[in-house]
Design goal:
- The protein is α/β, with parallel strands linked by helices and about 220 residues long.
- It folds into two domains: about 5-60; about 70-210, Glutaredoxin (3-Layer(aba) Sandwich), CATH 3.40.30.10.
- It is built from seven helices and seven strands; from the N terminus they run ααβββααβαβαββα.
- It has helices at about 5-25, 25-60, 115-120, 120-130, 145-155, 165-170, 200-210, and strands at about 80, 95, 105-110, 135-140, 160-165, 180-185, 185-195.
- Strand 6 and strand 7 form a beta hairpin.
- The model is unreliable at about 45-55 and about 65-70 (pLDDT under 50).
Length: about 220
Protein backbone atom coordinates (compact mmCIF):
# COMPACT_ATOMS: atom_id res chain seq x y z
CA UNK A 1 0.00 0.00 0.00
CA UNK A 2 1.23 3.47 -0.87
CA UNK A 3 0.88 6.31 1.57
CA UNK A 4 -0.87 9.50 0.46
CA UNK A 5 2.55 11.16 0.20
CA UNK A 6 3.85 8.36 -2.04
CA UNK A 7 0.76 8.61 -4.26
CA UNK A 8 1.22 12.35 -4.54
CA UNK A 9 4.85 11.86 -5.56
CA UNK A 10 3.83 9.28 -8.19
CA UNK A 11 1.21 11.64 -9.65
CA UNK A 12 3.74 14.47 -9.71
CA UNK A 13 6.27 12.29 -11.52
CA UNK A 14 3.65 11.28 -14.11
CA UNK A 15 2.70 14.89 -14.73
CA UNK A 16 6.36 15.86 -15.05
CA UNK A 17 6.85 13.12 -17.65
CA UNK A 18 3.84 14.37 -19.63
CA UNK A 19 5.06 17.97 -19.57
CA UNK A 20 8.56 16.86 -20.52
CA UNK A 21 7.14 14.93 -23.46
CA UNK A 22 5.17 17.95 -24.65
CA UNK A 23 8.20 20.22 -24.32
CA UNK A 24 10.34 17.81 -26.28
CA UNK A 25 7.77 17.20 -29.02
CA UNK A 26 7.23 20.24 -31.22
CA UNK A 27 4.39 18.69 -33.23
CA UNK A 28 2.36 17.89 -30.14
CA UNK A 29 2.55 21.52 -29.04
CA UNK A 30 1.56 22.75 -32.49
CA UNK A 31 -1.40 20.34 -32.59
CA UNK A 32 -2.68 21.57 -29.24
CA UNK A 33 -2.46 25.19 -30.37
CA UNK A 34 -4.28 24.39 -33.63
CA UNK A 35 -7.05 22.55 -31.74
CA UNK A 36 -7.54 25.53 -29.44
CA UNK A 37 -7.70 27.94 -32.38
CA UNK A 38 -10.20 25.75 -34.27
CA UNK A 39 -12.39 25.45 -31.18
CA UNK A 40 -12.51 29.23 -30.85
CA UNK A 41 -13.26 29.66 -34.57
CA UNK A 42 -16.12 27.14 -34.54
CA UNK A 43 -17.59 28.83 -31.48
CA UNK A 44 -17.41 32.22 -33.21
CA UNK A 45 -18.98 30.86 -36.41
CA UNK A 46 -21.84 29.29 -34.46
CA UNK A 47 -22.52 32.57 -32.67
CA UNK A 48 -22.50 34.52 -35.94
CA UNK A 49 -24.78 32.00 -37.69
CA UNK A 50 -27.35 32.27 -34.89
CA UNK A 51 -27.24 36.05 -35.11
CA UNK A 52 -27.53 36.01 -38.92
CA UNK A 53 -30.56 33.70 -38.75
CA UNK A 54 -32.33 36.20 -36.53
CA UNK A 55 -31.36 39.05 -38.88
CA UNK A 56 -32.55 37.07 -41.92
CA UNK A 57 -35.98 36.60 -40.39
CA UNK A 58 -36.25 40.30 -39.61
CA UNK A 59 -35.17 41.15 -43.16
CA UNK A 60 -37.81 38.82 -44.59
CA UNK A 61 -40.43 40.41 -42.38
CA UNK A 62 -39.44 43.95 -43.45
CA UNK A 63 -39.63 42.92 -47.12
CA UNK A 64 -43.14 41.57 -46.67
CA UNK A 65 -42.19 37.92 -47.10
CA UNK A 66 -43.04 37.09 -43.52
CA UNK A 67 -46.52 38.00 -42.37
CA UNK A 68 -47.05 40.40 -39.50
CA UNK A 69 -49.12 37.56 -38.08
CA UNK A 70 -45.98 35.50 -37.44
CA UNK A 71 -46.60 35.97 -33.71
CA UNK A 72 -50.06 34.35 -33.76
CA UNK A 73 -50.46 32.03 -30.82
CA UNK A 74 -50.47 28.34 -31.68
CA UNK A 75 -53.35 26.25 -30.35
CA UNK A 76 -53.08 22.51 -29.91
CA UNK A 77 -55.84 20.33 -31.28
CA UNK A 78 -57.21 16.82 -31.08
CA UNK A 79 -60.06 16.66 -33.59
CA UNK A 80 -62.14 13.91 -35.24
CA UNK A 81 -60.80 12.99 -38.68
CA UNK A 82 -62.40 11.61 -41.82
CA UNK A 83 -61.14 8.23 -42.97
CA UNK A 84 -60.45 9.66 -46.45
CA UNK A 85 -57.15 11.13 -45.25
CA UNK A 86 -54.09 9.08 -46.22
CA UNK A 87 -51.50 10.43 -43.77
CA UNK A 88 -52.58 7.84 -41.18
CA UNK A 89 -54.50 4.57 -41.36
CA UNK A 90 -58.29 4.42 -41.15
CA UNK A 91 -58.21 3.14 -37.56
CA UNK A 92 -56.99 6.49 -36.25
CA UNK A 93 -60.12 8.39 -35.21
CA UNK A 94 -58.54 11.62 -33.96
CA UNK A 95 -55.83 13.82 -35.41
CA UNK A 96 -53.66 15.62 -32.87
CA UNK A 97 -51.19 18.46 -33.34
CA UNK A 98 -48.73 16.21 -31.49
CA UNK A 99 -48.88 13.83 -34.48
CA UNK A 100 -47.37 16.55 -36.67
CA UNK A 101 -44.24 17.50 -34.73
CA UNK A 102 -41.26 18.03 -37.08
CA UNK A 103 -43.64 18.28 -40.04
CA UNK A 104 -44.47 21.66 -41.61
CA UNK A 105 -48.18 21.72 -42.40
CA UNK A 106 -51.02 23.92 -43.57
CA UNK A 107 -54.01 24.34 -41.28
CA UNK A 108 -56.83 25.28 -43.65
CA UNK A 109 -60.26 26.36 -42.36
CA UNK A 110 -63.08 25.73 -44.84
CA UNK A 111 -66.72 24.72 -45.41
CA UNK A 112 -68.59 22.97 -48.23
CA UNK A 113 -70.86 25.98 -48.86
CA UNK A 114 -67.85 28.29 -49.38
CA UNK A 115 -67.12 28.76 -53.10
CA UNK A 116 -63.47 29.89 -52.72
CA UNK A 117 -62.89 26.99 -50.30
CA UNK A 118 -64.17 24.49 -52.84
CA UNK A 119 -62.09 26.09 -55.59
CA UNK A 120 -58.81 25.80 -53.67
CA UNK A 121 -59.24 22.09 -52.88
CA UNK A 122 -57.38 21.17 -56.08
CA UNK A 123 -54.49 23.45 -55.05
CA UNK A 124 -54.30 21.88 -51.60
CA UNK A 125 -54.40 18.40 -53.11
CA UNK A 126 -51.55 19.42 -55.43
CA UNK A 127 -49.39 20.56 -52.50
CA UNK A 128 -50.12 17.30 -50.66
CA UNK A 129 -49.49 14.94 -53.59
CA UNK A 130 -46.62 16.68 -55.37
CA UNK A 131 -44.82 18.52 -52.55
CA UNK A 132 -45.57 16.08 -49.71
CA UNK A 133 -46.67 19.07 -47.63
CA UNK A 134 -49.06 17.91 -44.93
CA UNK A 135 -52.48 19.53 -45.28
CA UNK A 136 -55.02 19.59 -42.45
CA UNK A 137 -58.39 20.83 -43.67
CA UNK A 138 -60.52 21.96 -40.74
CA UNK A 139 -64.20 21.86 -41.66
CA UNK A 140 -66.10 24.46 -39.66
CA UNK A 141 -69.54 23.76 -38.16
CA UNK A 142 -70.99 21.21 -40.61
CA UNK A 143 -72.53 17.79 -40.25
CA UNK A 144 -70.21 14.88 -40.96
CA UNK A 145 -72.42 13.41 -43.72
CA UNK A 146 -72.28 16.70 -45.66
CA UNK A 147 -68.50 16.82 -45.36
CA UNK A 148 -68.04 13.17 -46.36
CA UNK A 149 -70.25 13.60 -49.42
CA UNK A 150 -68.27 16.61 -50.60
CA UNK A 151 -64.84 15.05 -49.95
CA UNK A 152 -65.82 11.89 -51.83
CA UNK A 153 -66.99 14.03 -54.76
CA UNK A 154 -63.65 15.83 -55.10
CA UNK A 155 -61.57 12.69 -54.36
CA UNK A 156 -59.55 14.49 -51.70
CA UNK A 157 -56.81 12.49 -49.95
CA UNK A 158 -55.32 15.00 -47.51
CA UNK A 159 -56.38 15.08 -43.86
CA UNK A 160 -59.82 16.48 -43.02
CA UNK A 161 -60.84 17.12 -39.41
CA UNK A 162 -64.12 18.36 -37.96
CA UNK A 163 -64.65 21.47 -35.85
CA UNK A 164 -68.38 20.97 -35.48
CA UNK A 165 -68.97 23.51 -32.72
CA UNK A 166 -66.50 26.10 -34.14
CA UNK A 167 -64.63 26.15 -30.83
CA UNK A 168 -61.27 25.45 -32.45
CA UNK A 169 -61.66 27.99 -35.26
CA UNK A 170 -62.66 30.63 -32.73
CA UNK A 171 -59.30 30.19 -31.01
CA UNK A 172 -57.66 31.36 -34.24
CA UNK A 173 -60.19 34.17 -34.55
CA UNK A 174 -61.44 32.79 -37.87
CA UNK A 175 -64.21 35.12 -39.05
CA UNK A 176 -64.08 34.44 -42.77
CA UNK A 177 -63.05 31.43 -44.82
CA UNK A 178 -60.95 30.14 -46.36
CA UNK A 179 -58.06 31.05 -44.09
CA UNK A 180 -54.83 29.07 -43.89
CA UNK A 181 -51.95 28.97 -41.40
CA UNK A 182 -48.46 27.61 -42.00
CA UNK A 183 -47.33 25.77 -38.87
CA UNK A 184 -44.10 24.08 -37.89
CA UNK A 185 -43.31 22.54 -34.50
CA UNK A 186 -46.22 24.23 -32.75
CA UNK A 187 -45.47 27.71 -34.09
CA UNK A 188 -47.49 29.73 -36.60
CA UNK A 189 -45.24 31.22 -39.30
CA UNK A 190 -47.68 32.58 -41.87
CA UNK A 191 -51.33 33.32 -42.48
CA UNK A 192 -53.18 33.50 -45.78
CA UNK A 193 -56.67 34.99 -45.95
CA UNK A 194 -58.61 33.83 -49.00
CA UNK A 195 -57.62 31.15 -51.54
CA UNK A 196 -53.97 30.15 -51.48
CA UNK A 197 -51.49 29.86 -54.33
CA UNK A 198 -49.19 26.80 -54.37
CA UNK A 199 -46.34 28.98 -55.62
CA UNK A 200 -46.70 31.39 -52.70
CA UNK A 201 -46.77 28.50 -50.26
CA UNK A 202 -43.66 26.94 -51.81
CA UNK A 203 -41.83 30.28 -51.85
CA UNK A 204 -42.70 30.87 -48.21
CA UNK A 205 -41.39 27.46 -47.14
CA UNK A 206 -38.16 27.97 -49.10
CA UNK A 207 -37.64 31.34 -47.41
CA UNK A 208 -38.16 29.84 -43.98
CA UNK A 209 -35.80 26.96 -44.79
CA UNK A 210 -33.12 29.33 -46.04
CA UNK A 211 -33.49 31.51 -42.95
CA UNK A 212 -32.89 28.47 -40.74
CA UNK A 213 -36.39 28.33 -39.23
CA UNK A 214 -37.22 24.99 -40.85
CA UNK A 215 -34.49 22.37 -41.09
Amino acid sequence: MFSSIDQSIIRTEKMNKIFSYIKSNFFVKISIVICLILTLLFGLLFFLSEENTSNDIENLRSQGYLSDDIGIEFHQFNLPRLSAGTLFNDQKKLLSSNDLINKPYLLNFWATWCGPCRAEFDELELLWNEDNLVIVGVNVAEEINEVEKFVEGVSSTFEIVLDQDSSFSSKYNVRGIPVTFLIYNDKVYYKWTGPISPKRVRDQIVLLEESGVMQ
